[in-house]
## 1
Amino acid sequence: MAIDRDSVLNAAVGVLSRQPNAAMDEIARAAGVSRATLHRLFPGRDALVREVGALALRRFAQALDDARIDEGDAVAAVRRLVDAVIPLSQLCAFLTGESKLYEDTGINEAWDRLDARVRALFLRGQQEGAFRIELPAAWLSEAFLDLVAGVGWAVQDGRLAPRDSAHALAELFLGGATRRPAP
Amino acid sequence: MAIDRDSVLNAAVGVLSRQPNAAMDEIARAAGVSRATLHRLFPGRDALVREVGALALRRFAQALDDARIDEGDAVAAVRRLVDAVIPLSQLCAFLTGESKLYEDTGINEAWDRLDARVRALFLRGQQEGAFRIELPAAWLSEAFLDLVAGVGWAVQDGRLAPRDSAHALAELFLGGATRRPAP
DNA sequence: CCCATCTGAGACACAACTGTCTCATCAGTG
DNA sequence: CACTGATGAGACAGTTGTGTCTCAGATGGG
């Protein structure tokens, strides 16, 4: 039976989100395969990283679709987005680390497209009067994604319980992003 | 005249916060010195990174002192902390990236001590009734530092205006961390 | 049982980075 | 002007990771 590519990719995410410059040797060991097999599955390290990045971005885009962020109340949309994105927080941590490391045009463009979709959600929320207009939508998007990555790191290192993470992220972020009911 | 070590360190921060695994060659070029001089100033790459890390941690600790986070109203203390830490956001971005790359015991311990001080501030705020108790103080600290690093990256890449950064950080974070005046 | 296929272990050359060296050049000083 | 000290450029070996290869062993189907 051919070794499961997805399991290898998942193991690679686990290693690379902690150590973005991990060697193929470590990735192979973490995936439970030999270095030779890892090279048989992926043409090289760059290809592996790109594939992990593409996987992460695909799942992220799927999460945005699943959360239906263009529909209904913006605050509710953000809550759906949080729930959809929390399982991907480790992937998000990988992507934030990776985007600092490499200059892969494809990954960066896809990341920008995702960021634009999130930004549009916050812009819509501002236009609806739900989100504070004195905070730039770009900053809200940036901060949201930073916090998702932060959740990924915190959960990975055991500093945050996974079952608390969605609530912690949603409450902290929405508390800061939404307009106060009464000054 | 001996080349200014500090200017080299600052240049190193600029490069390493973007590319944590940048080569000595790139760091030297960014600092405007030759690779030979860089090696004359610092015994090696590890020493350089450690020194940059130590500098960042010292400045961070100094910022905590300057902000007098143990005194007075917790919310006001956080605002002072934001103002003191914003100029160091790039250093914070470096530290976050670096801690994922290396396992330098000294840096990690010092980072944990800083994190504990910040955590104590939020814990105090919760005990005073200013901060929401349903969010773990550890998460507040984690999120705060993630956002500071995020500010560093966003400013560095031109996605956030430096003069807006303190306000953006303080308002978003405090909005999420403080208890709502009335439900 | 035999065979096809896949996997793991190891060897190998190649590339990149590091750390050290030498030497020429340049600036400041007496 | 001569001299001292620091710097830049380049060469060099050593180390580490990569990519490819071969070969032996395991696994599963016919």
## 2
Amino acid sequence: MKFQSVRGFKDWVPEEFIRYEHLIDLAKAILKKYNYQEVKIPILEKTELFIRSIGEVTDIVQKETYTFQDRNQEFLTLRPEATAGICRMVIENGLFMRPKPLKFFTIGPMFRHERPQKGRLREFYQIDVELFGNLTPWYEVELIKMGLKILYSPLKDLSEDEEIKNLFTLEINSLGCEKCRPNYKNYLLSSLKDSQNLLCNTCQQRLERNPFRILDCKNPNCQTEIQKLEPIHKFWCEDCELHFKELKELLEFLDLKYVLNPYLVRGLDYYTRTIFEIKGKGLGAQDTVCAGGRYDKLLEELGGPFLPAIGFAIGIERWELCISQYLNPQTFLERLSPQVFIALLGREQFNEGLKLAEALREADLKVEVLYEEKSLKALLREADKLSSKKVLILGEEEIKEGKVLLKDMLQGTQEKISLEKLIPKLKEEFIYP
RNA sequence: GAGGUCGUAGCUCAAAGGUAGAGCACCGGGCUGUGGCCCCGGGUGUUGCGGGUUCGAGUCCCGUCGACCUCCCCA
């Protein structure tokens, strides 16, 4: 094999693409019901945008971005996530003047230079959802509910199955706000300083850079130290505590199961208060399918007005890995096969076949024609391989009579039918069944 | 970025240092007016790539690229 795709970048062949398309269609249908507006933002942004939003000392910015200089020596970065770009869009286009809340979503590839493994690619697709303009937990609950709805949407027919009911689990936490978060940070710093040499090497570095990340370290030594600490909720201010209490009550009100995870933290600096992750089963080490939270200060920090916001991102490939085993392959077959296959018996029929195919396509039918001199047997074999439901046989005899032979490939039946009656008949079958 | 497992035909996988194979798929034919089934024929290959050891390497060694797993990190 001469060429291989770049490490961590993959092709989507038709069978894979239709799965992607199917999931996107389901997600979009739900997003529309919540009145989210689809937008598109560039894949490339100035590096500075990500440094300012995600945080200069985060791992993502420090070692995972595709950053390079263009021909004008300007530093550019392939987006590792979409929130920063959406915020830039809101500010640059003055969208913050519009009625609140602003509700946007975008679907597209993100890029992170990490070691690839199952459920982790260097180019991966996200459904990114953002809501701007409100501080209350009602919007958070609605957003979380919508996220879960999207994730479960491909499995709607199987929703009674116990295994499927628990395919995704919601974890929540609050990081506190600008008032109370520093207290917890200081507490972490002072109490972990004493046991510093018991922590792993990376955590000793985290102590300097981002002490919150120590909380979700998997190293057992670090975990024993972490267990000794006071949990984060002891440090929340009154407002943050109330906010989180209301959030939990609302989740219960909607019968949404959740797990409180006081050690849940995020790899991006911009989050405040509520954060959440939805984890999927069967993914191995990379089990977070959806993650998000509140980022009230970000727009302001990027030079816009104060506009509190919440959002999440779904990793489409991970989502697909979770649910694909439960999906019926038949669901996708239709997207790949023609509705009508036209079998032309001999070169003399090619012109008529071309005309007929165009007429059927004008009538919104999906049509395949082979302009090849093959036996009827061979042509039917082709139609069978493509899983075409109907075959139109067009030979010398039919053309003379102004008719075609319409064959049903599932039933094996066939009838001779005039050209005038053909389109209404096929429409009845495929378009208004 | 660290450690580990693996890499043979389009796909799934054999070949335990001695002639590169099977099933499925694919192509041609039986079969120019009827698909699925069947029969006959065809191996379609730079054994990921590059070196080395050896009389001889798919097999052993080194490097490299890629996939997967763990760590890191994250969607």
